[in-house]
Write a structure and sequence with these properties.
- This protein is mainly β.
- The chain contains no helices and 41 strands.
- Strands 4, 26, 29, 31, 32, 33, 34, 35 and 40 form a 9-stranded antiparallel β-sheet that branches.
Length: 545
């Protein structure tokens, strides 16, 4: 059996393509750099993180992009000659809005195209396509033409913001859109129509979209037409997959799907989902990617194998030769020339400004820059939280000289949601540890634990997460006894659902290391290693080794 989600943790908006024996899924990375994650599989069960194609400033510069903006909904395809990757860089989100709202909703989305002969690159510099909406997609038509689709945004007061799906021909030789823009699908009564993907089968053009919004009402809509430009008839069993109105479903928020066929002709649907924790109803791991086989009905519509439309936790294997990948080590020791593949940073295409792997060999050196809430240049390197119960530990060597300097271990969702165990200094206490918590849905925006004086020298820092329970500990490097902070922190704030009204929340929880120097002198902090351990729930984390 294949166990869902196949890509646990923050891996939303999947786009899938098969090239030979290999399957590739591209997912959104939002404000995290490098942009777009691409996973590889040969059996649809075992997946490995292979590459991130948007690696340089000419392709992506997200400095100043708001939280949950940046790279949205990539579309990965192959036309028999090369890979094509479409993506959006969102520069302004504004407030969350609904169709018919009295005010305008001004947003800025810019859609780009890059290509590569190999999935691992090098990827080209981007071609700018348009800015009329988001969730772009490229369709390679049977006649050799290429069509660019995207959701159309209508900012005007009183209008349907999600104004339907538009298509326009793309001319590769001219590297631009040509001809007229056509509104090919206005959407259904579910609303919030987005995420188009187009397919051709047996003389039909099939259009898959996401509807209902990317929360509890999310759904996969299917429509078809004999003409690429429509009109499109909606499937009689629509939505073909959803968890809306199904509180029993362990995989919630199911939608934003894409389709691939195995060599035997079986259609497989990948889609995003969320797993709310039992006693909070919040998806701490963000929006994840799941997969399940589908079937064509006698009248050529698509449905789940049992016809229920339910997202499934366990699905039959694909009948492909099994291809597991080596597990990532528990400890990342930063001894190589590059960051371990699981790690990313925020926004900037100039990582040399915020960290180095050569300044002190065998260490990740962070250079303190702006505050941990900065949207421009902050030193924070982290990896996704991919399980509900984990222990993360690091060894840090830092010597902050005053209160504007800090470094430590962080559980981070965005600039308004994090728990940060940090070392800092002030004249009254000297060196001390404390936790700063940014609280999105509390009566105060931030809170601080009581300061804990610590000796100079390297420290080991630890965080444990057990569903909504987060604890912190420290010890001098080389000692065996952990000193646990008495506070119990709410890890469930590190989720889409914990939010101030109107804010975008589309990412997920990361765990990692950070440094700040708000005096502008670039204090350094060295991290020798980083341990990430997934485990069973622990009633008493102080008993963990």
């Amino acid at each position: 059996m294949i166990l869902n989600p196949i890509l646990p943790g923050f891996n939303p908006d999947p786009s899938i393509v098969r090239v030979g024996e290999d399957y590739y899924i591209a997912t959104s990375t939002f404000e995290w750099f490098p942009g777009v994650q691409i996973h590889q599989s040969r059996d649809l069960e075992h997946w490995r993180l292979l590459t991130r194609p948007l690696t340089r400033a000419s392709q992506l510069d997200m400095r100043g992009d708001p939280d949950s903006c940046g790279v949205w909904a990539p579309c990965l395809s192959h036309d028999g000659e090369r890979f094509w990757l479409i993506y959006t860089d969102v520069k302004r989100y504004g407030r969350t809005t609904v169709g018919g709202a009295s005010g305008a909703s001004l947003r800025d989305f810019h859609n780009y195209l890059v290509t590569a002969d190999s999935i691992e690159g090098p990827w080209s510099d981007p071609v700018y396509i348009n800015s009329s909406g988001f969730d772009p997609s490229l369709f390679h038509a049977p006649d050799g033409r290429k069509w660019f689709l995207n959701q159309l945004w209508d900012h005007r007061p009183g209008r349907n913001r999600f104004a339907g799906i538009v298509a326009q021909e793309y001319a590769p030789g001219e590297q631009r859109l040509v001809g007229e823009r056509h509104l090919i699908f206005p959407g259904t009564e579910l609303g919030l129509t987005e995420a188009p993907h187009l397919y051709h089968r047996d003389g039909w053009y099939y259009l898959i979209t996401a509807e209902g919004g990317t929360g509890w009402g999310h759904a996969v809509t299917l429509a078809r037409s004999r003409d690429l430009l429509g009109p499109y008839e909606v499937a009689p069993n629509n939505p073909i997959l959803t968890a809306r109105d199904r509180p029993h479903a362990p995989l919630q928020r199911a939608g934003h799907a894409d389709l691939v066929e195995t060599p035997d002709g079986t259609p497989w649907l990948v889609y995003l989902c969320g797993r709310p924790i039992p006693n909070r109803g919040r998806c701490m791991l963000g929006r994840e990617t799941a997969i399940q086989p589908m079937r064509w009905t006698a009248d050529s519509w698509l449905e789940t194998l049992d016809g229920s439309g339910d997202p499934a936790v366990e699905v039959p294997e694909a009948g492909l030769p099994e291809q597991p990948w080596p597990d990532q080590p528990v400890r990342q020791d930063f001894r190589g020339p590059d960051l371990p593949v699981d790690f990313q940073w925020l926004r900037t295409p100039y990582p040399e400004r915020i960290f180095s792997l050569s300044a002190r060999p065998g260490n990740l050196r962070l250079y303190g820059r702006e505050s941990i809430g900065s949207l421009f240049e902050q030193s924070l390197v982290a990896r996704r939280l991919q399980a509900h119960c984990v222990t993360v530990t690091t060894r840090m060597d830092a010597s902050p000289a005053h209160y504007q300097q800090a470094a430590g271990l962080v559980a981070y969702y965005n600039s308004a949601k994090f728990h940060y165990l940090h070392l800092t200094h002030d004249d009254a206490i000297g060196l001390h540890l404390r936790v700063m918590s940014a609280l999105p849905d509390g009566t105060t925006a931030d809170a601080f634990s009581e300061p804990v004086p610590v000796p100079p020298g390297p420290l080991e820092l630890r965080m444990t997460i057990d569903f909504e329970r987060l604890r912190c500990a420290w010890r001098p490097a080389g000692e065996t006894v952990w000193h646990w902070l008495p506070e119990l922190f709410d890890a469930s704030i590190l989720s889409d659902e914990a939010t101030a009204p109107g804010a975008p929340n589309f990412t997920g929880c990361f765990v990692g290391v950070a440094a700040q120097d708000m005096a502008g002198t670039a204090m350094s902090a060295d991290f020798s290693w980083f341990d990430y351990v997934e485990r069973d729930y622990a009633t008493d984390v102080t008993l963990l080794g």
